[in-house]
Amino acid sequence: MRKLTCLTVLLLTVAMLFAVNVQAEKVKLLWTTCCGQADRAVLFQKIAQDYMALHPDVEIEWRNPAGDYTANMVTYFATNTAPDVFWIGAAIWNFIDMVLPLNDFVEKDAGAQAINPAVRALAAYQGKQIGLPYGANVNTIMYNKDHFSQAGLNPPTASWTWDDLIQMARQLTVDTNGDGKIDRGGAQFVHHQYWMLTAGGDFYTPDLRRVQIANAANAFMVQMQADMSSGILPIMFQPYNSNAGIEGLAAMTNIGIFDLPKYQQAPFSWDIQKFPTLVVDGQRYENTYVTLEQWAISRQTKHPDVALDFLSFLLSREAMTQITESRIVIPTQNIMASRFIQQPPPPENYLAFMEGLNHGHQIILGHPYGTTLYNWARQQPLWNNMWSGAIPARTALQELQDTLNKQLDQYWASVN
């Protein structure tokens, strides 16, 4: 009997030691997100808790670092303390050699496959899927319904063109006191230096080795903006005011989802519509301004399989439903469209955001050398002369393309 008791105690001790050992072997993943908003912090922490409830052998350490997020990420990678899974926006191009390619994951994961293919392509580099966009900020055209009503105009429809917009803008432009100065413009645009250079397609060739901006579609848009700035096309309030739309000084302007909170407090009625179709020489072009929010996995992770499983959860219907219903971003999965558009107005036309996902193009920043190239271009007299109308758009775009390609040649020569 005594021997049996000792044996029982021994077995219990071994079992307890085994349990302690198993607990000690719990996998820990570090997950960083951005960018300080309280609602995001609550949401992401809940998603982490939901995952851990399903996987008690995994601990998700969530961090939302203060300060410059990109600078923090650079430091983490340099000190070999990078997170396993991390949020990243346009700055992903700074980390192309530091992330795991996700091509195999996309082939197998239902959530990754549900991402709009046009959006997913914006996070690919030389055939490698370097990030997976779960959300996007898509620009649409905000139109002031009060101004339209006063001008006797019907609201724009999804079939409108840029020629329609210009004609409407002429009718919406008002000189209230007859002094020859515009008191309320028909249209004014923001971030045009990005999206007007992709009217004809991606800023770069598919292999990212050449700039391809010298085309008729880009020339139309750049010349339009130049003529607005110079007054040749008198539809813009002067001087330029990036807040003209919300201040009632422009009947139309482009806005994204991050602009909604302030517009929902506006003292006027408004709605949104997709960017107009551009028709040049009989050819139709669709374009809008899209920026991405995506998940990536660090090459430094010690637990790639677990990191991929967590990524799968982040893109699952359960997690994406929470993200979609939080309204923090436009979901990139088409299956989430019905949930996203069922929101209280304004705007009434939430569908315009989802439609815009199909029409984004790679902007100048979408390249490992993109930020440097953009900053260099802005310092060139040619750049300013092009946007001011001092040089015709067609001429300027060809010269700019040639100049930027010389810069790209030097870049590729330095990294090859």
What is the count of helical runs? 18
Low-confidence stretches: 16-22
CATH topology type of the largest domain: D-Maltodextrin-Binding Protein, domain 2
Strand content: 5-15%
Q: What percent of the residues sit in helical stretches (DSSP H or I)?
A: 40-55%
Mean pLDDT: 95
Secondary structure tally: strands: 13
Which strands sit side by side, in order, in the main sheet? 2-1-3-12-6-13
Distance between the termini: 77 Å
CATH class category name of the largest domain: Alpha Beta
Largest sheet entry: 6 strands, mixed
Provide the structure class.
Answer: alpha+beta
Mind telling me which CATH architecture of the largest domain this is? Answer: 3-Layer(aba) Sandwich
The CATH superfamily of the largest domain turns out to be Periplasmic binding protein-like II
Shape: globular
User: How many individual domains?
Assistant: 2
What's the Cα radius of gyration?
Answer: 26 Å
Question: What would your notes on this structure say?
Answer:
The protein is of the alpha+beta class and 416 residues long. It folds into two domains: 27-135 and 294-358, Periplasmic binding protein-like II (D-Maltodextrin-Binding Protein, domain 2), CATH 3.40.190; 140-287 and 369-415, 3-Layer(aba) Sandwich (D-Maltodextrin-Binding Protein, domain 2), CATH 3.40.190. Helices cover 43% and strands 13% of the residues. The chain contains 18 helices and 13 strands. Strands 2-1-3-12-6-13 form a six-stranded mixed beta sheet. A three-stranded antiparallel beta sheet has the order 8-7-9. It has a two-stranded antiparallel sheet with strand order 4-5. The longest helix has 23 residues, at 2-24.
